Structure formats: structure tokens, C-alpha cells
Amino acid sequence: MSNANTIAPDASNEVPHRTVIVVGGGQAGLSISYYLKEAGIDHLVIEKHTVTHTWRSQRWDAFCLVTPNWQCSLPGHPYRGDDPHGFMKKDEIIAYLDGFITMVDAPVLEHTEVRRMKRRADGRYALSTTNGEFTADHVVVASGGYHTPIVPRMAERLPAGIVQLQSSHYRNPQALPDGAVLVVGSGQSGAQIAEDLHLAGRQVFLAVGEAPRCARFYRGRDVVDWLADMRYYDMPVEQHPLREGVRDNTNHYVTGRDGGRDIDLRRFALDGMELYGRLDDLRDGRLQFAPNLIANLDSADDTYNRINASIDAFIDKHGIDAPRGQSYEPVWRPEGERTSLDLAESGITSIIWCIGFTPDFSWIDAPVFNGRGYPAHVRGVTPQAGLYFIGLPWLHTWGSGRFSGVARDAAHVVGTIRSAIETTSASLAA
């Protein structure tokens, strides 16, 4: 249930105008609203569904945070529970967000989709929505970057009797038909969903991708705590070794389930999970996999050990008293690469696609996008005056798309808007 300050569409014949329109009512959009209200700037948040809809509708039942609760620091609404080093479960996350919604009390127009947005000759932005027309001096796009689920065309050739789900529609093992499950992709969602099914006693086939992994705990502390002390989460994108390329990286897989632990696909394999390389095709009733399982597992472990080695170096440099660390050694290795699997003989009755999303900003008519459909920006500020983005991965830092870093991004964007408004006012006064 939403506690937002929901407003009704304007029933007059005049096109409503706002100084700022925020498109998207997730934590990023509401964070923008928080700072706009603080600055006394007139605005409206337009949300396609209901505020924080994604958290309520696109998470499986056993979902929990993979970062500790203390990193939940939405503006004016830090985590205040009694388990800062724990990991909130789905219902706790929703309760946390409900508190934020109530506190912000944003002016929101829900169940409204923005179909088209374009800057007019007079500098104002015109927005066409399912609830009428609007104009604004500034527009903040806060709809995220995960819009269109990626499902390969080969899915069309799978037998009609096989249930296919995208990761955002998976809920629990009991909702799937009896039989084995193929999970495609081993990023955060794929690895955790595979674990969820595995723990429920289901036979799981996992097509392992190139996602890296990291330890949950190392040398007596959560790895996130170490990285925070090392100022990793304060590193701006322009200082990262990969620069903007880091925005394309897949998130490390780890879990906060049951108090937090590593996800070790090799250990799952010891317990009966069937691991394969990247899923490439379906031919003559047989699934075809790339011969890259060994490379993908080794690469994930290399990242795991590299992160731990950076923590070792930090501990040594600062003379910190901490338990001794050690390098991860594989508990299981594939005997070879298996590149084919008979679909009927495998007993697979369900397939869960966990290979990500692509952005869809096709409704925005503005010359700010690169060849891959991502907006060009510096800390959310685009080259086109009055157009901003927030909530995207590595918008500015690692935490930009998370509860931990969106506040400072929102403060920066609103600060830029405020400066623009003051400049315009001073110009008109002169």
C-alpha cells in the first residue's frame, strides 16, 4: 500500500506546469522529491505504477539485501533498527520504504505513464502522459535502467510444456511445476534463485555466466565494512580503473540470506547442482552450452581472491589487528566441459532467465544518448539544459543505484537545479 501524497490529474483545460517533474517514484525519485521540498521547489513525481512498485512486485519471497542494513541511508531516513550488520528481508525492506514514503510525503501522480517527452522551443519540457499533458522547466528521469527483460529468441523454440519465467517473475520453488529447473545466468539474481531452488531440494541446472563473486565475511568482518573503510564506496566513476566502463559490469554474487554467506557454485556442484557454461542455443532437442564453465568459475574466484588481497594490503598498511586471512582454494573442479544436454532426458520442466535487462528511454526525445541507449551525463547532469538522470548504476559512485549512495546523488542534482533556477531568476531581475 502506498502512503504517498497522491494527487488527482488536473481536470481543467490548461496544461499543468511544474518547475520540476520527476519521472519515477522509486527510492531515487522520492530522494529527489525530499531535497526539492527542502529547497522549496515546486515539483511533481509521476509514477507509472505505485511508488516503490518494483520492490513489492519484482522480488522473490526469500529475497533479502546483499549489503548490510547500515548502508540503508536514504535522505532523512537512515536505518534505525537493532541489526545494522544484518540483512533486511523483503517485508522489512518494504516497511523501511513505507517509512520513507510517509516521511517524504511527495506530491505523486500514480498510475500514470509518460509516453513522450521533448524540449520545446521556449526551453520548457512537454510531457505527454496517460493522464494528460504537462510542462516543466526541469525533468529528472528516475525510472532506473532495468526496463526490458533480456530473453533470447531461442526461448521461442522451447517446448510449449516448459514453464519460462524471467527473474523478476520468480517467487518461490513451490510455484513451479515438479521437475528440474534450468537457471540461466549467475549474476546476483541467478545465483540467489539457484540457491533458493537448491535449498528447497529441487534439481537445478545452472548456466554459469561471467559474473564475479566476493566473500561475505573476511578476516573477522563483512567485506562491505572493509571496503567502506577503504573508501571504495566513495570512489567516483571517473577515478575507477575502468572509468565509465564499470557501468557495464555485472554485480558480484553473494547473499545476505540466513545472516549472510558466500555463494560458492563449486560447493553447490558438490551437493548435486549441475553446472554448465553459457547457454548458446537449442538444436534437435538438445541445449547447447559454450565450453567456458571452467574459465567462468576461475574468473569469479580470481575476483574473490583479488578483493580479499586488497583487504589484506589495507590491514597491513594500517597495522590493524585482524584474524589471519587465506586465499580461496576450489572445493570442486569440472572434469571437463559439457556442451550439450538432452532437454527431455534432463527432466527440466522450468527455465528461469536471469540474464538482465536493457534500458528503454525511447520515450525521451533528447540528443543525450550513446549508441547503446544510455544517457551521457556527469553525475546525472546531461548536456541538455534542464534534463537529469538519477538512480543508474555508477551514476557517480558504486552506491548510486542503491540505498547507500542515492542521497548524495539526489542532493547534487537538486543543487544543480537550484543553481539554474537562481541564475534564471537573477537574469530576469537584471
Automatic annotation (TrEMBL):
Pfam families: Pyr_redox_3 (PF13738). The keyword Oxidoreductase applies. SUPFAM superfamilies: FAD/NAD(P)-binding domain. It comes from the Bacteria. GO terms for molecular function: flavin adenine dinucleotide binding; monooxygenase activity. PANTHER family: FLAVIN-BINDING MONOOXYGENASE-LIKE PROTEIN (AFU_ORTHOLOGUE AFUA_4G09220), FLAVIN-CONTAINING MONOOXYGENASE. This is MSMEG_0569 family flavin-dependent oxidoreductase.
